[in-house]
């Protein structure tokens, strides 16, 4: 690796660490270990939906957005069906890099699925605050992710409702943008994600609502998606018992209503 690439990599890792992308991903695995029994049903449903969606697709290049720990991806089956599989995430855990070594047709792409908002926000938010300006309001729409050329099948894998969370949490620390401006940004990020998924070649799996439970009684519901989802050729809905041990929200359990759409 040349010096410039090494420096860029270090800078990038520093930004991801500062913005909590690294700890967030580690947190997913820790929560999975704690909640394995509850999560397994969700993971099984994700995997079987993906295999059903794969049936009707050309078997050339497949792209997985938000591959993370591969918990919800039936990689073994898919690697036998598709010529090439590209796993896309902002961070690929070392364990995953080791796991995929045995597949000659599986590669990773380290990329920001928002098309660059992570770096842009990190670089501009402090200056925005200092200069009392709001560049994000006019620049966010310049960012969108481009899929690798000739993608036959793309899976948005339990990522859509999360794409904005770390970004918004980070922006909030600077008290620069109003709640309604931040909501507009969330809508933009989600709409841009949907727009990038090609019709007839996509499978979208995302949480759409959060249920908050007190002693297993529903006491609140948060919508997680602010845009219209595509009507699919087929779809499935299920509940994911995300946090039964009350470590995500103190004193409350959290479940998600998850939807999967083939379109
Ligand atoms: C909830 S996980 C999805 C579950 C994942 N398939 C797994 O098994 O771990 C979300 C993943 O999206 C990644 N991610 C979040 N924001 C991203 C972005 N802007 N670009 C690329 N990946 C992102 C995270 O690093 C994480 O691995």
What would you note in describing this structure?
This protein has 263 residues and is of the alpha/beta class. It has a single domain, classed as Rossmann fold (3-Layer(aba) Sandwich), CATH 3.40.50. The chain has 8 helices and 8 strands, in the order H-H-E-H-E-H-E-H-H-E-H-H-E-E-E-E. Strands 1, 2, 3, 4, 5, 6, 7 and 8 form an 8-stranded mixed sheet that branches. Helix 4 links the parallel strand 2 (84-89) and strand 3. The chain is globular and about 55 Å long. 28% of the residues are buried. The structure holds S-adenosylmethionine (SAM). The site of S-adenosylmethionine (SAM) has 22 residues, from helix 2.
CATH architecture: 3-Layer(aba) Sandwich
Mean pLDDT: 96
The major beta sheet can be summarized as: 8 strands, mixed
The dominant shape is: globular
- The name CATH uses for the topology is Rossmann fold
Give the uncertain stretches in residue-range form.
none
Name of the top-level CATH class? Alpha Beta
Evaluate the radius of gyration: 19 Å
Brief overview, please?
The chain is 41% helix and 24% strand.
Structural descriptors:
263 residues, alpha/beta, Rossmann fold, eight-stranded mixed beta sheet, 8 helices, 8 strands, globular
SSE map:
Blueprint: H1 3-18, H2 21-55, E1 61-65, H3 75-81, E2 84-89, H4 94-99, E3 106-110, H5 117-130, H6 135-139, E4 151-157, H7 165-172, H8 179-196, E5 202-214, E6 217-223, E7 234-243, E8 253-262
Parallel strand pairs: 1-2, 1-4, 2-3, 4-5
Antiparallel strand pairs: 5-6, 5-8, 7-8
The structure holds S-adenosylmethionine (SAM).
The site of S-adenosylmethionine has 22 residues, from helix 2.
């Amino acid at each position: 690796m040349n010096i410039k690439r090494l420096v860029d990599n270090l800078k990038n890792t520093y930004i991801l660490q500062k913005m909590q992308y690294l700890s967030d991903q580690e947190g997913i695995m820790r929560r999975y270990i704690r909640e394995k029994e509850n999560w397994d049903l969700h993971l099984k449903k994700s995997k079987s939906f993906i295999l059903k969606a794969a049936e009707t697709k050309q078997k050339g290049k497949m792209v997985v957005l938000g591959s993370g720990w591969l918990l919800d991806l039936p990689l073994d089956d898919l690697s036998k069906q598709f010529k090439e599989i590209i796993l896309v995430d902002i961070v690929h855990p070392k364990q995953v890099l080791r796991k995929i070594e045995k597949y000659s047709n599986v590669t990773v792409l380290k990329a920001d699925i928002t098309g660059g908002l992570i770096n842009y926000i990190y670089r501009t938010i402090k200056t925005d605050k200092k200069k009392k300006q709001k560049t994000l309001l006019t620049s966010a729409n310049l960012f969108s992710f481009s899929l690798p050329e000739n993608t036959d099948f793309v899976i948005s894998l339990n990522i859509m409702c999360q794409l904005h969370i770390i970004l918004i949490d980070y922006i909030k620390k600077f008290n620069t943008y109003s709640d309604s401006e931040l909501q507009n940004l969330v809508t933009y990020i989600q709409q841009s994600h949907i727009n990038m998924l090609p019709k007839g070649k996509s499978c979208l799996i995302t949480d759409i609502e959060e249920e908050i439970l007190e002693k297993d009684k529903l006491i609140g519901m948060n919508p997680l998606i602010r845009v219209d989802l595509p009507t699919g050729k087929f779809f499935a809905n299920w509940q994911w018992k995300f946090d039964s041990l009350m470590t995500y929200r103190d004193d409350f359990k959290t479940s998600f209503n998850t939807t999967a759409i083939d379109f």
